[in-house]
Each structure stands twice: as structure tokens, then as C-alpha cells.
Amino acid sequence: MYAIEAKGLVKQFDGFRAVDGVDLNIPEGSIFGILGPNGAGKTTMLRTLLGIIDPDAGTRSLLGSDRPITQSRNVGYLPEERGLYQSMRAVDTIAFMGALRGLSLKEGAEKGRALLEEAGLGYAADRQIRQLSKGMAQTVQLMGTIVHDPKLIVLDEPFSGLDALNQAKLEKMIRAQAAKGVTVIFSTHVIAHAERLCERIAIIAKGKISFDGLVSEARDRLRPQVHLETETLDGPWRSALPAETKAEGHWWHFTLPETGVEPLLTALVEGKAGVKSLSIERPGLHDAFVAIAGEAVAAEMDDAHVGEAK
Amino acid sequence: MKEIIRAAFVIARRDFTAIIYSKAFIFFLLGPFFPVLVGFAAGNLGGQIAKDVSQPVVGIALAKEEAGKILSARESLSKTLGDSYFARMVVVGDPAADQKAPQSYLAKKSDNLSVVVTGTLQKPVITGTANAIKRERADIELLAGYAQSGSAMTLPRSAPDIVVESANNDKTLRTVTAQGGQFFIFFLTILLAGMVLSNLVEEKSNKIIEILAASIPMESVFLGKLFAMLGMALLGILVWTTVGLIGFAAIGPALPNFPTPAVGWPMFIGLCFTYFIMTYLMLGALFLGIGAMAATVREVQTISMPVTMAQLINFFFASYALTKTGEPIEKFAAIFPFSSPFAMIGRAALEPALWHHAVAIIGQIFFAILLLRLGVYLFKKNVMKSGSAGRAKDDGARRLFGFIKMPG
């Protein structure tokens, strides 16, 4: 059963295709990451999937309904552009957001207080949003996103603007929701978050899905990298190294041959390479992303990440 | 539909509470009192100045006995004609004793005389400027004649027989009522336009619109905002009416007497409120539609002027149409949705038939819904563009209100 299904989804603005023929299936109960650089079409895709905007072509289904707004009570959404009424109290904000999704204001306020207590912000429940720090306000909005116990939570760039401590809290919350069986989808351009949290990811670039599957599948698309240090620089063992091997003094870096580790080790030992050290490194999601989305997109993401870190 | 209404009330409740606790609402409530107070103050001040500055005084320089007679005649006739009918008269001297030329009395600035009467009651001489003589001559001759008769003239007392309407009253005078109704609707909607805009500015600046759009149908968002503003308007009307009634009780007799409208006062007042609500719903839906498409607060504020001017044109158009009852231009004013409420309240004052009001109100409701749906459509089509999708994809250009291409 899929929480979200999309087929041939297209959304364009002024002739520009922000979402360009997206096919996507997101299983229920998973933590699903949508990766892509700024401007890749992540937000537009999420908005289209949630029914905030209608697609120009293609079909979509949210929790089994092709009219996403009818599933509103089962969905929690944290948009990329955070927005709250500045003069509203924190607890009323959560209650209001719950009321939008079908809760009564009273029930929303009770749950809101409980959530704020849980997050260590009980003391700020009666403060106006304008009196809270940015991180606290963001936490209040997050509480408003989950106050009605949704089956599906969609978070657009949720880590943006949070310090390391709050990022860790958010990761914990996402795991807690997933443990309850809630489907969590989040978009990010920071690959590390997706690598830590997600079982499945989709990589989007220029409005198209380049990859949709398990994180391990993405990483398995690349062969492991071998880093070898030898005593000798030449000998019969050199024939066991692939042609594209990079040499740095006594160090050799190359992709593990398809024949595997054992034939390589045998060749090195029998060829008297004098192995001083040998490590086999499994590729990370970043490397997989580079391979899947292309060097240009990866470079763009790196720039964005560095910019954000500044 | 049930969910749309439920969600609309969630929005309406939030907006209504936020509005009535805002400083802007205090100014909204005080809004109508400013022109009334300024008008009242200016009227009083102007009246006082006019009274002080240009009140003509007639100087009497007759023999002592004749001067007494003319003053008695003024007092006697004033009881019938009113005290303000004749200019104030003061005895400035006795020519036999003073041996002065009449011009010398006029020269004395402190007396502020417009004319001086010398000679005798049989042959009075009036000295003054040509305009002053023209103004006072008939009154002085009347008083001199009455003073000579030596006894009070007996005037017959007429018996009043009051009717509610007359042929003259029917149409010409009811136009005044029609204009009053039109002005009432126009004034209220202009006041509200500012509040609708400030509400939109708030939505733009707090960026909450996306949460609303993701949670509930956009129809609910628009409808909820309209309900909230309508609630605020009705609360305002309640306050103004209460203050107005207190004011009426205090100065009621001094207020102008509006001729009874053709449909009767209760129906006319009911229609005034109905047409005000319809004008507000249409204008509000238009504001929300256009405002929601604006990308920035500045763009929202830019909308204010042309829409207000358009509303002003509507008002003048409907006022003009009042004088063209039954002609194509009046029919067009009644059919064209934005001028229809103004034109129809005019009709309510002038014509007793009610069926065309039912038709007009249904038409206006239909048009307001159409505007609302159009606003939702345009919002979905143009507004929710994220960063790069919403910005320049076309050589650094951007689009004002989603339509007008602007240099980046």
C-alpha cells in the first residue's frame, strides 16, 4: 500500500517545467527523503502531491484519494516558508492548526500544551509567537503539524534554519513518528540527514526523478572503493589492479573489481606486493547521488550546503 | 460543502478575533465619527463666524418718538415672522440733537451698521451701500408703514392639515432618500476596503497562507475571511447605530427629514443592509482574488487605489442613473454587478415593486460566488510558486500580480 502514488506528474509556470513527468511511489510507514538541489522542483512537487496546487498533467493519489484535500485530516504539512500569526499564543497556534485539520479548539489546546511540555517548551505555551526565538517558533509550528496525529507527515526542508541541537531533536521526532507507523516524507538538500534517517529516497533534479528506491540500492549502484598501500611499486601484482587505478606514491586507489576481494588479495600476495594496508570503502549516499544526479547537480548542492553552513 | 463551511468558520473565528483585538479596529470604529465631528465643528464654526461677521445692523436716526415706534413695530412683527426675519436695529442718535450727517454714523466701525435710517416714518431716507439698501429697503418700508398705523395688524391663524405624501414629494424628494441610501452603502464599503487590505497584508507578511491552502479548501480560506470581515462590519454597524440613536435622541429634531422611500422605511433599511452586504461580498471577493495573487505587501497596497477609484466611479455612475429611471443606463447600472447594489437601493427609494430586488440579490450572490471561485482558481494557478519556480525563469523578469511582465 502506498501513501503517495504519482504518475506522469507535470507542473509548469510560465512555460517552465518545475515538475516534469514525475513517477513516484512512497510506501506507507516509511521515512522517505526527497533529495535535490535548490530549485530542483522539490517544493512544487510536494505542493502538487498535497493538492495545494493542481498538476497540469498526470495523476496523483494521496492516502488512496485522488483528491488530496479530502485527506487533509490525515496529513501534517510543514512548508518550507514558515508562517505563523505573530500575535497568537503558542498554544493557540497549535490549537488553530489542529482545528484546520478537524480537531476542536479545546482538544487542540490540550494536545498542544502536552506537546509543548514534551518538547520542554511548556513555559512558553502562553507566550505570543513574536516573543519566541526562531527555533522555538519553528518547534511550535512542528507541533501544529503533528497535533492531530496524522498518518502522513510531509516536511519541506525541515532542518533549514535549525541549529545542531534542534536538528538532532527533529531527527528524534521523525524517528518517533515513524516508530508509530506514520509515513514521514521530507525534502532536503543536505544528504547527511537523508542518509541518517531514510529507508527510501527519491533524487530529483530539474523537475525529474533520477532515482527512487532504498538508500542501500542507491549506494549499491556504485562498486566499493579500494585503498591499497604497498611496499613495492612494481611487480606482477600490478596486473591485478584495474586500468583506471590512481597512484599516489605507494598508495593505490581503485574500484573493487567485479571478481571480488579474494582474487584481488591472492594476486597481491602471490605477486609479492608487500601489502602494508588495505581498506575497502562502501560508497556513501553522497557518492551515489553524484553518480545518479550527475556531477553538476552535486556541485550545486555542495555550494548550497556550504552557503547554509556559513 | 459541510467541510467547506466548517473550515471557513475556523478561519472566520481566528480572523474576527484578531481583528477586533487589533488597534486598526479602534480606528475602524472611530472612522465614521471623524467626518461627522469635523462637519459638525466646521458647520458650527462657520455659522458662528457668519453670524458674527455679516449680521447686518440697521441704525435708526429718527426723532425719538418715531424711533420708538419703528422699534415697537419690529418687535411686534417679529413675533409672527420670527426674530431672525428682520435685521437687528439700534438707535444711533437723534438728528435734531446731534446735527450729524448720516454718513458719520456709518463711519463708526464699532457699531457695524449696514444702513442708517433718517428722515421721518412718512419719508424715510436710507443711507448705505447700494447692496445694503437693496437688502434692507423693503423691510424698513414695511416697518415704517406698520409703525405709522399706530395699532397691531391682526393676522389670521391657519389650521394645519398634514398629509404623508404629495405628488411633489413622490419622486423628486425620494431621490434624496435614494442618495442617502447609496451614500450609506458606499461609505461603509470604503471603510471596509481598508480593513480587507490590512488583513491581506497580514497574510502576506506572515506567510501562513500555504499552511491554510494545504489544510482546507481555498474556498474556505476566502469564505472565512469574508465572514470575519462581515462580522466585523456588522459589529461596527451595531456600534455606530447605537451611537447614532443616542445622537438622534439628543439632536433628532435638528436632523433633516428624509422623505419616506417607496418600499417603506423597514424594507428600505433592510435592503440597505442587504445591499451593503452584497457590495461588501463582491468587493471583498475581488480584493481577496487580486490580493492573493500579489507577491508582495507592496503589490497588495498598490491595489488599494485603483479599486477605491473604481468603487467611486460605481457610486457616481449609480447616482447619475438615479435621474434616468427606466432608461437603458439605469437598467445597466442595476444589472452591472458592482453598481447594482447602489442602483437597486435607489430603486427601493423610488419604486415600490420588490420582485426586482429578489432578482438583483440572487444575481449579486451568484456573481460574488463566481468572483470567489475565480480568485481560488487564480490563486492556485499563480501564487504557490516556490523560490525559483515563482521567480524569473524568463530572463530575470517577473510578473506583477502574475500577469504584468516587469523588468527584474
Strand order of the largest sheet of chain B: 2-1-3-4
Q: Give the count of structural domains of chain B.
A: 2
Supply the helix-strand structural class of chain B.
alpha/beta
Over all CA atoms, what is the radius of gyration of chain B?
32 Å
Polypeptide structure, described:
The complex is a heterodimer of chains A (310) and B (408). Chain A is an alpha/beta fold and 310 residues long. Chain A has 2 domains: 2-218, 3-Layer(aba) Sandwich (Rossmann fold); 223-281, no CATH class. Chain A is 35% helix and 27% strand. Chain A contains 10 helices and 13 strands. In chain A, the strands form 3 sheets. A 6-stranded mixed β-sheet of chain A has the order 5-6-7-3-8-9, sandwiched between helices. In chain A, strands 11-12-10-13 form a 4-stranded antiparallel β-sheet, with no helix packed on it. Chain A has a 3-stranded antiparallel β-sheet with strand order 2-1-4, covered by helices on one side. In chain A, helix 5 links the parallel strand 6 and strand 7 (183-188). The mean pLDDT of chain A is 86. Chain B has 408 residues and is α/β, with parallel strands linked by helices. Chain B folds into 2 domains: 2-25 and 169-384, no CATH class; 61-149, no CATH class. Helix content of chain B is 70%, strand content 6%. In chain B, the strands form 2 sheets. Chain B has a 4-stranded mixed β-sheet. A two-stranded antiparallel ribbon of chain B has the order 5-6. In chain B, helix 1 (2-20) packs across helix 10 (218-251) and helix 8 packs parallel to helix 11 (265-293). The radius of gyration of chain B is 32 Å and the shape is elongated. Chain B starts with a helix and ends with a strand. In chain B, 37% of the residues are buried. Classes of the chains: A alpha/beta (310), B alpha/beta (408). The interface between A and B is medium-sized, with 36 and 31 residues.
